Structures are given as C-alpha cells and as structure tokens.
Amino acid sequence: MKTPQLFGTNGIRGVPNDYLTTEFSMTIGKAIGTFFNAKKIAIARDTRVSGNMILLSVASAVLSTGTDVIYLDILPTPALQYYCKNHKMPGIMITASHNPPQYNGIKAIDSDGTEIDEEKEVEIEDLIFSKKFKNVPWNEIGQYYSDNTVINEYINGIMNVVDTDKIKKKKFSVAIDTGNGASYFTSPLLLSKFDCHIVSLNANPDGKFSSRNSEPKPENLTDLINIMKTKKFDIGIAHDGDADRCVFIDENGNFIDGDKSLSLIVKYSINKNDTVVTPVSSSDALKDICKEKDAKLISTRVGAPIVARAMINNKAVIGGEENGGIIYGKHQYCRDGAMTLSLMLNLLANQNKKLSELLKEIPDYKMVKSSVERKKEWNEIYKDITEKYKNKKMDFTDGIKIYDDNGWTLIRPSGTEKIIRIFSESKNMDDAVKYNNEYINYLKNL
Ligand code: MG
C-alpha cells in the first residue's frame, strides 16, 4: 500500500507563507473538493494568526470545484467533526493542534465525522500531484454560507450522553486552561451549563499562544497547577490548541498522566463484555482495568484515526491514547476534549469521591520515554533487533514491542522525524529505566 507523502499523522502541516503558502493551500483545497465531490463541505479553524489566510484560500478553491462551503468560524476540531457527522457532509479543519504558533495545517474529515484514512489521503495527494481538479463552469461555482448553530448542537450533544442532572447537582469548582486555543468559548460554556463554579485561564483567543505553549504538558501548565494548589477546586482541566485532547490536575495540584486519566475514565465507562481500543503504546494499567471489568481490549497501531476506525469496526464503547485523547463511541468516533472532561465530571459525580482518591484505584505503572537518532533505514534496524532479541517475546502491531520479565519496551520509528522512539514500562521505575537504557545502548551502537 502507498503511504501518504504530504499528510502526516494529523493532516498537512507547515509554516504559512513558507511551506503552506496560499497557492499550496488552494491546491490542497481543490484536491479535497475534487476528491469529495460533495454538495457541501464544512470548514472551521483554530485561533492561529494564519487561520483566516489558509481557510479562505482553501475555501475559495473548494468553491471552484462546484462545492458549497459552510463556514463555522473558530471551533475545536471535534466540534467540526460532530457537525460533519450530524449533517453527513465532509469537512476541512485548519489547525496545527498543539504545534508552535507559527505552524498551521489542513485536515480533511469524512462525512461520518472521522478523520480520513491513509488510502484517501493518498488519493487526495495523487490529485495534488496530477492537478486533475474538477473545474466547474461559472454558473455552477459553489456558494459560501455560515452556520452559527454548531456550538449549541455540539454542547447539547455532549450533555445528552452524560448524567447532566447529577453533574449539575454537584456544583463542581473547576479551573480550566484553554491555552488561547479553539476551545476558549466552548469548554467554559459547557462547564457553565453543568452549573460549575469556573475560573477560566487563557480563555482569550490568541493565535500567538502568548500565555503558554499549546501542548498540555505539566511544564506548560504551571499557572493552572498553581491555581489548583490553592486547593479551592475539585479539578483542573487543560486542552491543546484544537481541543481534541484534555488533561487533568487533581484537587491537590498534581498533574495526572494521560494513561491514568484514560484508565480511570475507561474504568467507569465500561461494562462486562464491552470492547476498548488503544494503541500498543498505552500503559498496561488499561489492560488490568479491562481484565478487572471483564472487557475486551484491542491494541492497534499508534494514531488516533487508527484507534477510531478500529472502534467502529469492533463496536467499541471507548478508546484513547496516553496523551489525553479519548474517543467515546456514544458521542462520536474521534478524540474530543470537551467530551473527555464531561466523562470525568460524570464519574466524579457518580462516585462521590475526590479525584486523587479515585486515581489510587488505578494500577501504578512507570513509563520511561526516550528517543535516539535513526542512523539507517527502519527495515534494517528491524531485522537487527528481531535477530538480536529472537529469544524474547515480541509483538509487531506497530514497530517492535519486546517483553522482558517485569515489563515491556516499544521501539518504533517516528513518522515525522529521523528518530526512533523507545517507551519502556514496568511496575517499578528501576526496571523501566533499566530496559530503556538497554535498548537505547543497543540502538546507539547499531
Ligand atoms: Mg490536537
């Protein structure tokens, strides 16, 4: 199978006016319009400075293919996806997610609301390279409309799949950091509708991300963590730039690893015989939780669209990644930060315990993540590793997962950089470090 050249794991990304010029954005827009050949395409953007430039270039190109464009303004990526699903139309999202502010990107959404798969990306790229675009006569050129009903539709959709009355009764105190990104309006609004007491941080849309880096990592969330350390809030919440991801801080100001929040949310969202999907890179905590609940866990390659597709194919209830990207099937098959925060409030309301107490129920694993430079082709490295460690148990779902006595190590090439990522997990930190070092040293000396 051909692999996409321009599409990365999350659309086509680059620096506007450098790689992502107006001309290139138009070429991509024409290719997407030609590929979908739909009556209408919905389009939205995050808060980045270049958002209008890229969006208008893409939209104009789509109109030239005879497709109407529905403009939805600034929105979280999952809100656009929800609109696409509900209105059965394809979509285009202008976002570079958590990348630094100088970047932007173009992402195509299928008419079922999921991100397009690699095969479709290749088809769009073939059109980009061949320039065989649909070019309609003057009287068939598409029209440009806007629709401002999308936010209510999205928020109501989320509120309908959780126990909203129970959440409301709790009158949670919540601090939320939307990081100047696309959720600046939607997530605080959702929390208001849940009758929470809210302190919103960085809820001013600012495409330069001047308050904090967009990736919701602890080092970027010091303001939120400090607010949580006042111990006046039940929970702290933070999103990335396009709010498909959501991370949490407990009531004492401790950042919660994405693996832990995923395991906790899964634990209280599933029943016996349900199916859960996660990439091979996720913690064994999730495996333990699924075992405890008598649920089936499916491991996939790394990548949210891959998890989403596997969920659809296996009728899974929930799925997700260790970076705070959670997919809830009842709502829609894509990562959704606002849905994730709602599932967390839902379980807090139902369990009637503090977040830190609930986290104690999650099996404690330690993960060490590192990377080394990739000095030769991956298939050669792959051969070397499988030969060298042939006596160990291995899994080849994505890269190579090697099992040792007290844990595992996942070795896989990065899709975007010339590096190899090495994740090691064990119940104790010493073993996780030991395994990680062993494979790093081996890979460095190849
Ligand atoms: Mg994102």
SS content category: alpha/beta
Could you tell me the strand content as a percent range? 15-25%
Overall pLDDT metric: 96
Biggest pleated sheet: 6 strands, mixed
Gross morphology = globular
What is the total tally of β strands? Answer: 21
Enumerate the spans where pLDDT stays under 50 for 5 or more consecutive residues.
none
The total count of helices amounts to 15
**What ligands does this structure carry?**
magnesium ion
Main sheet: which strands, in order across? Answer: 1-5-4-2-3-6
Q: Summary?
A:
The protein has 446 residues and is an alpha/beta fold.
What does this structure look like?
There is one protein chain. The protein is of the alpha/beta class. The protein has helices at residues 22-36, 51-64, 77-87, 118-130, 150-159, 164-170, 186-193, 222-228, 258-267, 284-292, 304-313, 337-351, 355-359, 378-388, 429-444; strands at 12-14, 40-45, 68-74, 91-94, 104-109, 144-146, 173-177, 197-201, 235-239, 246-249, 255-256, 275-279, 296-300, 318-320, 326-328, 332-335, 366-373, 393-395, 400-404, 407-413, 419-426. It has a 6-stranded mixed beta sheet with strand order 1-5-4-2-3-6, sandwiched between helices. The chain has a 5-stranded mixed beta sheet with strand order 8-7-9-10-11, with helices on both faces. It has a 5-stranded mixed beta sheet with strand order 13-12-14-15-16, with helices on both faces. Helix 1 (22-36) crosses helix 4 and helix 6 packs across helix 12 (337-351). The longest helix is centred in the last third of the chain and has 16 residues, at 429-444. Magnesium ion (MG) is lined by residues 97-98, 240, 242, 244-245.
